Amino acid sequence: MTAIKSRRYNHSIVVVMHWHHIENAPFDRELELAVIDSDGVHSLIFPCRRVLGGWIISTSGAALKIRPTHWREWSTSVLPYAKTYH
After folding, report:
1. Cβ count within 10 A of residue 49
2. Beta strands of the chain (E only): which ranges?
3. d(Cα 60, Cα 27) in Å, to the nearest integer?
4. Cβ–Cβ < 8 Å for 83, 42
5. How many domains does the chain have?
6. What is the DSSP secondary structure assignment for residue 1, as one 8-state letter?
7. Are 76 and 59 in contact (CB under 8 A)?
8. What's the domain range around 73?
9. Contact between residue 77 and residue 17 where contact means Cβ atoms under 8 Å apart
10. Confidence band (pLDDT; 50, 70, 90) for 75?
11. Is pLDDT larger for residue 14 or for residue 38?
12. 13 in helix, strand or coil?
């Protein structure tokens, strides 16, 4: 289950979702992917889907050429800067 926090920013609620390990990623759903290493969180700015044999970019169907380490639900309602920090 994804842990979610919220806080107010300029009269809006900003939702911050936590990352899950990539091994637990569901298939055939739009997800936000990231590589988390000693330099921090490096999240992709486009939705991806897990398919048999790897990952694809949802909008183009192209194969993803990186190895993500973490995932969370893709949400277009979350502000971009809020999705990066948690």
Report:
1. 19
2. 4-9, 12-17, 20-21, 31-37, 40-43, 48-51, 54-57, 70-73
3. 17
4. no
5. 1
6. -
7. no
8. 4-84
9. no
10. confident
11. 38
12. strand
Interior/surface letters 3-31, b for 16+ CB within 10 angstroms, e for the rest = eeeeeeeeeeebebbebbebeebeeeeeb
Find out whether 9 and 15 touch, Cβ atoms under 8 Å. no
Q: Per-residue DSSP letters for 47-62? A: -EEEETTEEEETTT-P
Distance CA 15, CA 50 (A): 24
pTM (global) more than 0.85? no
Write down the residue that tokens 């920013």 correspond to.
9
Which has more confidence, 49 or 13?
49
Q: Which structure tokens are listed for 84?
A: 């990066």
Sign of CA dihedral 41, 45, 47, 52: negative
